[in-house]
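pinging the channel bc i need a second pair of eyes. not urgent but kinda urgent?? the chain im working w is below, pasted from the shared doc
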Amino acid sequence: MAKEFIAAIELGSAKITGIAGRKNPDGSLSVLSVVREDATPSIRKGLVYNIDKTVQSVNNIVKKLENNLKTKVARVYVGVSGQGIHSVRNVVGQDLPADMVVTVDMVDTMRDANRSMAYSDMEILDSVTQEYRVGNQYHSDPVGIQAQRVEGNFLNILWRKKSYRNLNKCFAEAGIPIAEMYLAPLALAESVLTETEMRSGCVLVDMGAETTTVSVYFKSILRHLAVIPLGSHNITKDIASLQIDDKEAEEIKIKHTKAYTNMAEIDPRSNLTTSGGVVVDLRTLAEVVEARVEEIVQNVWSQVPGEYMGKLLGGIVITGGGSNMENMDKAFKNCTQMAKVRVARFVNTQVSSSVPGVMAMDATMNTAIALLSKGDMNCAGEDITGDLFSSAAQAGGKAASEREHTAQQQGKVQTEEEKKRAEELAAEQRAEQEEKERLERERIERERRENSWKNKTWKALKTFGRKIVEADE
């Protein structure tokens, strides 16, 4: 089997997906194995809420991949999303001596200052540079330009510290090293959006079971990111509220409903009888489904910053399992008045696989394949010889002895790791306290400067200058 492969795990709101494959010289991907675990006992809205069960699911994923590949998985890439992830703008400025040229070191200093920003109970997962303001002009690269002041505009993507630590803890307890942690929405955008859509501006909507992720791009730069705690499972719940079993409600949603329905086409006398004997009027069913879809779409549209309204010529791109509902594109067109709406059913990369479901083109594999595309480190460990997975008896006492030895070693390592984690936590708490004190001092000093007559006059002049520049553009 494969001697080299990339392995990734996507923690979705409905399922945890493990994928392994390799990159070919021509840039295409070969998917070698895909395995899934039900996420409902361990994940809620994309967040770990039961650490023990998440550890078990991760272990099951890795074991299944190893079984299929006949090779140990040495490390995995992890894609994260879920409720609580959102973007926040931040500006870092630097005053320069008269007519000084902006250098690479100055730009790096601003980036470092931005990444060191402290947010209460939040962790910076990633930071995207928007542009740099030099004088009254905006530039993507300010290096080499003379200026008295330069400002860097950044988009910081935040996640709760608790969520971040829980996820790391799960993989540490499972004994699975993380090669790198990626923001799933960013990886997905790189795989399903075209260069034209990103450049001209678009909204990427990833409709999951319990969450919907909204990413706004303009001039090939991420401008806004948010996760809405609503998904296709909410539609199922609404159908179930008509006194229908949850499982059958899901089946009805898939077989008999649309995101948008022309009511004139429904016979007023038509109905549906469930296995439990409940008679459901089809018009009522359509109204229930459309009401929830409209709510989701309106929440998505409310995430688009006002400054980009009317500028997103790339339109709306919908993906994820929820995008499979018939007429979902029409629902978005009706609610947003956007003429251009596309459903991305598969990634842009050329993919080959004999694994069932991978080539289904139903948008459910897009994020997992996107994570695979991002990886560049060999995740393969030692080859597994013999039939270790199908015949435990064949391994005999040797396997038992090895497990006992491994358990002893893991016990020692775990004790050392616990001690190390305690020391790191104490150091982190001290650092956080020092950072809070530093920020408070800076806040007091900043308020003092901002309230001075000189600063107020300068702000008024800058606002006037900005309006002149915007008028010229």
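so The first helix runs from residue 51 to 69. and The CA atoms of residues 442 and 448 lie 10 Å apart. — does that match what u expected or am i reading it wrong
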